[in-house]
Request: fold
Amino acid sequence: MAGSSLLALIDDIATILDDVAVMSKVAVKKTAGVLGDDLALNAQQVAGVKADRELPVVYAVAVGSIKNKLILVPAALLISALLPAAITPLLMIGGAYLCYEGFEKLAHKFLHSKTEQAEHHQQQVEALANDSVDMVAFEKDKIRGAIRTDFILSAEIIVIALRTVATAPFMKQVTVLSVIALVMTLGVYGIVAGIVKLDDGGLYLLRKKGMRWWNKLVRRLGVVILNAAPLLMKTLSVVGTAAMFMVGGGILTHGIPGAHDVIYGAAQAVGAMAIIGAVLEFVTPAILDGLFGVLSGAVVLMGVTGILRGLKARPA
Reply:
Protein backbone atom coordinates (compact mmCIF):
# COMPACT_ATOMS: atom_id res chain seq x y z
CA MET A 1 0.00 0.00 0.00
CA ALA A 2 2.75 2.38 1.00
CA GLY A 3 4.71 1.37 -2.11
CA SER A 4 1.80 2.11 -4.42
CA SER A 5 1.23 5.48 -2.71
CA LEU A 6 4.90 6.35 -3.22
CA LEU A 7 4.72 5.38 -6.90
CA ALA A 8 1.57 7.48 -7.33
CA LEU A 9 3.31 10.46 -5.69
CA ILE A 10 6.35 10.04 -7.97
CA ASP A 11 4.03 9.84 -10.99
CA ASP A 12 2.26 13.06 -9.91
CA ILE A 13 5.59 14.85 -9.44
CA ALA A 14 6.79 13.68 -12.86
CA THR A 15 3.57 14.97 -14.47
CA ILE A 16 3.92 18.34 -12.76
CA LEU A 17 7.59 18.66 -13.79
CA ASP A 18 6.66 17.73 -17.37
CA ASP A 19 3.94 20.41 -17.41
CA VAL A 20 6.35 22.98 -15.95
CA ALA A 21 8.98 22.10 -18.57
CA VAL A 22 6.48 22.54 -21.42
CA MET A 23 5.14 25.83 -20.01
CA SER A 24 8.67 27.13 -19.39
CA LYS A 25 9.65 26.29 -22.97
CA VAL A 26 6.66 28.21 -24.35
CA ALA A 27 7.34 31.16 -22.03
CA VAL A 28 11.02 31.27 -23.06
CA LYS A 29 10.02 31.36 -26.74
CA LYS A 30 7.62 34.25 -26.13
CA THR A 31 10.17 36.23 -24.12
CA ALA A 32 13.16 35.54 -26.42
CA GLY A 33 12.91 38.91 -28.18
CA VAL A 34 13.00 40.90 -24.95
CA LEU A 35 15.82 38.67 -23.66
CA GLY A 36 17.89 39.64 -26.71
CA ASP A 37 17.27 43.32 -25.98
CA ASP A 38 18.13 42.71 -22.31
CA LEU A 39 21.46 41.18 -23.35
CA ALA A 40 22.38 44.08 -25.66
CA LEU A 41 21.39 46.71 -23.10
CA ASN A 42 23.28 45.16 -20.21
CA ALA A 43 26.43 44.53 -22.24
CA GLN A 44 26.33 48.21 -23.19
CA GLN A 45 25.61 49.37 -19.63
CA VAL A 46 28.56 47.59 -17.97
CA ALA A 47 31.13 48.53 -20.63
CA GLY A 48 33.63 51.30 -19.93
CA VAL A 49 35.06 50.26 -16.57
CA LYS A 50 38.61 49.14 -15.80
CA ALA A 51 39.49 45.73 -17.25
CA ASP A 52 40.14 44.17 -13.84
CA ARG A 53 36.78 45.50 -12.57
CA GLU A 54 34.58 44.29 -15.45
CA LEU A 55 33.61 40.94 -13.94
CA PRO A 56 32.96 42.37 -10.43
CA VAL A 57 30.68 44.99 -12.02
CA VAL A 58 28.84 42.32 -14.04
CA TYR A 59 28.51 40.25 -10.85
CA ALA A 60 27.13 43.25 -8.93
CA VAL A 61 24.56 43.90 -11.66
CA ALA A 62 23.63 40.18 -11.74
CA VAL A 63 23.05 40.25 -7.96
CA GLY A 64 20.91 43.35 -8.43
CA SER A 65 19.02 41.54 -11.19
CA ILE A 66 18.29 38.60 -8.86
CA LYS A 67 16.98 41.04 -6.25
CA ASN A 68 14.78 42.57 -8.96
CA LYS A 69 13.32 39.13 -9.71
CA LEU A 70 12.73 38.46 -6.00
CA ILE A 71 10.59 41.61 -5.98
CA LEU A 72 8.98 41.23 -9.40
CA VAL A 73 7.89 37.58 -9.35
CA PRO A 74 5.81 37.85 -6.12
CA ALA A 75 4.58 41.32 -7.12
CA ALA A 76 3.46 40.11 -10.56
CA LEU A 77 1.62 37.14 -9.03
CA LEU A 78 0.01 39.34 -6.37
CA ILE A 79 -1.10 42.06 -8.79
CA SER A 80 -2.34 39.44 -11.26
CA ALA A 81 -4.46 37.85 -8.53
CA LEU A 82 -5.77 41.00 -6.82
CA LEU A 83 -5.64 43.82 -9.39
CA PRO A 84 -4.91 42.49 -12.90
CA ALA A 85 -6.03 45.75 -14.53
CA ALA A 86 -3.03 47.52 -12.95
CA ILE A 87 -0.43 45.43 -14.83
CA THR A 88 -0.73 47.27 -18.16
CA PRO A 89 -0.52 50.83 -16.69
CA LEU A 90 2.49 49.84 -14.57
CA LEU A 91 4.21 48.33 -17.61
CA MET A 92 3.47 51.48 -19.62
CA ILE A 93 5.16 53.62 -16.96
CA GLY A 94 8.21 51.35 -17.27
CA GLY A 95 8.04 51.56 -21.08
CA ALA A 96 7.90 55.35 -20.95
CA TYR A 97 10.95 55.34 -18.67
CA LEU A 98 12.90 53.19 -21.17
CA CYS A 99 11.99 55.58 -24.00
CA TYR A 100 13.03 58.55 -21.84
CA GLU A 101 16.37 56.95 -20.99
CA GLY A 102 17.02 56.12 -24.65
CA PHE A 103 16.14 59.62 -25.88
CA GLU A 104 18.30 61.17 -23.16
CA LYS A 105 21.25 59.22 -24.60
CA LEU A 106 20.45 60.48 -28.11
CA ALA A 107 20.02 64.05 -26.90
CA HIS A 108 23.36 63.92 -25.09
CA LYS A 109 25.05 62.62 -28.24
CA PHE A 110 23.54 65.06 -30.72
CA LEU A 111 23.49 68.16 -28.49
CA HIS A 112 27.25 67.96 -27.94
CA SER A 113 29.82 68.57 -30.66
CA LYS A 114 32.29 65.89 -31.76
CA THR A 115 35.05 67.90 -30.09
CA GLU A 116 33.20 67.85 -26.74
CA GLN A 117 32.55 64.12 -27.09
CA ALA A 118 36.21 63.47 -27.94
CA GLU A 119 37.31 65.49 -24.89
CA HIS A 120 34.88 63.58 -22.64
CA HIS A 121 36.12 60.27 -24.02
CA GLN A 122 39.74 61.27 -23.48
CA GLN A 123 39.00 62.31 -19.89
CA GLN A 124 37.35 58.94 -19.27
CA VAL A 125 40.32 57.06 -20.76
CA GLU A 126 42.76 59.06 -18.62
CA ALA A 127 40.64 58.44 -15.51
CA LEU A 128 40.57 54.70 -16.20
CA ALA A 129 44.35 54.65 -16.68
CA ASN A 130 45.06 56.74 -13.57
CA ASP A 131 45.32 54.57 -10.44
CA SER A 132 44.99 57.62 -8.21
CA VAL A 133 41.46 58.31 -9.50
CA ASP A 134 38.72 56.73 -7.39
CA MET A 135 36.39 54.94 -9.82
CA VAL A 136 34.02 53.66 -7.13
CA ALA A 137 31.41 56.36 -7.80
CA PHE A 138 31.68 55.77 -11.56
CA GLU A 139 31.15 52.05 -11.08
CA LYS A 140 28.20 52.61 -8.75
CA ASP A 141 26.52 54.82 -11.36
CA LYS A 142 27.05 52.12 -14.00
CA ILE A 143 25.66 49.43 -11.71
CA ARG A 144 22.64 51.49 -10.64
CA GLY A 145 21.82 52.38 -14.26
CA ALA A 146 22.10 48.75 -15.39
CA ILE A 147 19.94 47.50 -12.51
CA ARG A 148 17.25 50.13 -13.25
CA THR A 149 17.14 49.06 -16.90
CA ASP A 150 17.15 45.40 -15.89
CA PHE A 151 14.15 46.02 -13.63
CA ILE A 152 12.00 47.33 -16.49
CA LEU A 153 13.02 44.60 -18.93
CA SER A 154 12.64 41.90 -16.27
CA ALA A 155 9.14 43.15 -15.49
CA GLU A 156 8.23 42.91 -19.18
CA ILE A 157 9.63 39.36 -19.46
CA ILE A 158 7.91 38.17 -16.28
CA VAL A 159 4.54 39.61 -17.34
CA ILE A 160 4.84 37.95 -20.78
CA ALA A 161 5.68 34.66 -19.06
CA LEU A 162 2.80 35.13 -16.59
CA ARG A 163 0.32 35.64 -19.42
CA THR A 164 1.57 32.40 -20.98
CA VAL A 165 0.67 30.42 -17.82
CA ALA A 166 -2.28 32.55 -16.69
CA THR A 167 -4.72 29.63 -16.73
CA ALA A 168 -2.38 27.20 -14.94
CA PRO A 169 -2.65 26.38 -11.21
CA PHE A 170 -0.95 28.84 -8.88
CA MET A 171 2.01 26.62 -7.95
CA LYS A 172 2.78 25.95 -11.61
CA GLN A 173 2.74 29.70 -12.25
CA VAL A 174 5.21 30.22 -9.39
CA THR A 175 7.48 27.42 -10.67
CA VAL A 176 7.48 28.60 -14.29
CA LEU A 177 8.15 32.24 -13.36
CA SER A 178 10.95 31.15 -11.01
CA VAL A 179 12.54 29.00 -13.75
CA ILE A 180 12.29 31.87 -16.27
CA ALA A 181 13.78 34.35 -13.78
CA LEU A 182 16.71 32.06 -12.92
CA VAL A 183 17.48 31.04 -16.52
CA MET A 184 17.16 34.64 -17.69
CA THR A 185 19.58 35.97 -15.07
CA LEU A 186 22.21 33.24 -15.43
CA GLY A 187 21.99 33.21 -19.23
CA VAL A 188 22.04 36.96 -19.84
CA TYR A 189 24.77 37.83 -17.36
CA GLY A 190 26.87 34.80 -18.25
CA ILE A 191 26.89 35.99 -21.88
CA VAL A 192 27.50 39.61 -20.81
CA ALA A 193 30.53 38.48 -18.78
CA GLY A 194 31.84 36.66 -21.85
CA ILE A 195 31.33 39.70 -24.08
CA VAL A 196 33.10 42.18 -21.80
CA LYS A 197 36.07 39.80 -21.41
CA LEU A 198 36.27 38.98 -25.12
CA ASP A 199 39.31 41.19 -25.64
CA ASP A 200 41.14 39.44 -22.79
CA GLY A 201 40.45 36.11 -24.50
CA GLY A 202 41.87 37.47 -27.75
CA LEU A 203 44.99 38.70 -25.97
CA TYR A 204 45.43 35.29 -24.32
CA LEU A 205 45.31 33.56 -27.72
CA LEU A 206 47.67 36.12 -29.25
CA ARG A 207 50.31 35.35 -26.61
CA LYS A 208 50.30 31.62 -27.35
CA LYS A 209 53.81 30.50 -28.29
CA GLY A 210 54.93 27.95 -30.86
CA MET A 211 55.71 27.88 -34.57
CA ARG A 212 53.45 25.03 -35.68
CA TRP A 213 50.55 25.84 -37.96
CA TRP A 214 47.89 25.52 -35.25
CA ASN A 215 49.85 27.87 -32.97
CA LYS A 216 49.93 30.43 -35.77
CA LEU A 217 46.22 29.85 -36.40
CA VAL A 218 45.43 30.43 -32.70
CA ARG A 219 47.43 33.69 -32.70
CA ARG A 220 45.67 34.82 -35.87
CA LEU A 221 42.32 34.08 -34.20
CA GLY A 222 43.47 36.19 -31.24
CA VAL A 223 44.15 39.12 -33.59
CA VAL A 224 40.70 38.74 -35.17
CA ILE A 225 39.03 38.72 -31.74
CA LEU A 226 40.99 41.76 -30.56
CA ASN A 227 40.01 43.68 -33.69
CA ALA A 228 36.39 42.56 -33.47
CA ALA A 229 35.86 43.31 -29.75
CA PRO A 230 35.70 47.15 -30.03
CA LEU A 231 33.39 46.88 -33.05
CA LEU A 232 31.14 44.47 -31.15
CA MET A 233 30.89 46.84 -28.18
CA LYS A 234 30.06 49.80 -30.46
CA THR A 235 27.42 47.68 -32.19
CA LEU A 236 25.94 46.65 -28.85
CA SER A 237 25.84 50.32 -27.81
CA VAL A 238 23.75 51.16 -30.88
CA VAL A 239 21.60 48.02 -30.55
CA GLY A 240 21.11 48.68 -26.84
CA THR A 241 19.82 52.21 -27.43
CA ALA A 242 17.57 51.02 -30.27
CA ALA A 243 16.27 48.25 -27.99
CA MET A 244 15.19 50.84 -25.42
CA PHE A 245 12.95 52.47 -28.03
CA MET A 246 11.63 49.21 -29.50
CA VAL A 247 10.87 47.58 -26.15
CA GLY A 248 9.57 50.78 -24.54
CA GLY A 249 7.59 51.76 -27.63
CA GLY A 250 6.24 48.22 -27.93
CA ILE A 251 4.99 48.29 -24.34
CA LEU A 252 3.27 51.62 -24.96
CA THR A 253 1.63 50.64 -28.27
CA HIS A 254 0.31 47.42 -26.71
CA GLY A 255 -1.15 49.45 -23.86
CA ILE A 256 -2.79 52.21 -25.94
CA PRO A 257 -6.16 51.03 -27.29
CA GLY A 258 -6.07 50.67 -31.07
CA ALA A 259 -2.35 51.48 -31.50
CA HIS A 260 -1.27 47.86 -31.84
CA ASP A 261 -4.06 47.22 -34.36
CA VAL A 262 -2.80 50.10 -36.51
CA ILE A 263 0.75 48.71 -36.45
CA TYR A 264 -0.52 45.20 -37.22
CA GLY A 265 -2.57 46.59 -40.13
CA ALA A 266 0.48 48.43 -41.50
CA ALA A 267 2.55 45.23 -41.29
CA GLN A 268 -0.17 43.30 -43.13
CA ALA A 269 -0.35 45.97 -45.84
CA VAL A 270 3.40 45.95 -46.61
CA GLY A 271 3.39 42.16 -46.33
CA ALA A 272 1.35 41.99 -49.53
CA MET A 273 4.25 43.46 -51.54
CA ALA A 274 6.04 41.15 -53.93
CA ILE A 275 9.48 39.66 -53.13
CA ILE A 276 10.27 41.67 -49.97
CA GLY A 277 6.77 41.59 -48.45
CA ALA A 278 7.58 38.90 -45.89
CA VAL A 279 10.67 40.76 -44.68
CA LEU A 280 8.82 44.08 -44.45
CA GLU A 281 5.95 42.44 -42.56
CA PHE A 282 8.46 41.08 -40.06
CA VAL A 283 10.42 44.32 -39.45
CA THR A 284 7.58 46.88 -39.70
CA PRO A 285 6.18 46.37 -36.16
CA ALA A 286 9.66 46.76 -34.63
CA ILE A 287 10.36 49.89 -36.71
CA LEU A 288 7.02 51.50 -35.87
CA ASP A 289 7.36 50.58 -32.18
CA GLY A 290 10.85 52.10 -32.23
CA LEU A 291 9.66 55.33 -33.88
CA PHE A 292 6.83 55.61 -31.37
CA GLY A 293 9.40 55.01 -28.64
CA VAL A 294 11.59 57.87 -29.93
CA LEU A 295 8.59 60.22 -30.02
CA SER A 296 7.48 59.14 -26.54
CA GLY A 297 11.00 59.57 -25.19
CA ALA A 298 11.15 63.10 -26.57
CA VAL A 299 7.81 64.00 -24.99
CA VAL A 300 8.79 62.54 -21.59
CA LEU A 301 12.21 64.25 -21.68
CA MET A 302 10.60 67.62 -22.45
CA GLY A 303 8.11 67.08 -19.63
CA VAL A 304 10.80 66.10 -17.11
CA THR A 305 13.03 69.01 -18.20
CA GLY A 306 10.11 71.45 -17.85
CA ILE A 307 9.26 70.15 -14.38
CA LEU A 308 12.89 70.37 -13.19
CA ARG A 309 13.24 73.92 -14.53
CA GLY A 310 9.98 74.89 -12.80
CA LEU A 311 11.20 73.47 -9.50
CA LYS A 312 14.52 75.32 -9.80
CA ALA A 313 12.72 78.58 -10.61
CA ARG A 314 10.54 78.36 -7.51
CA PRO A 315 11.62 80.68 -4.71
CA ALA A 316 13.18 78.92 -1.73
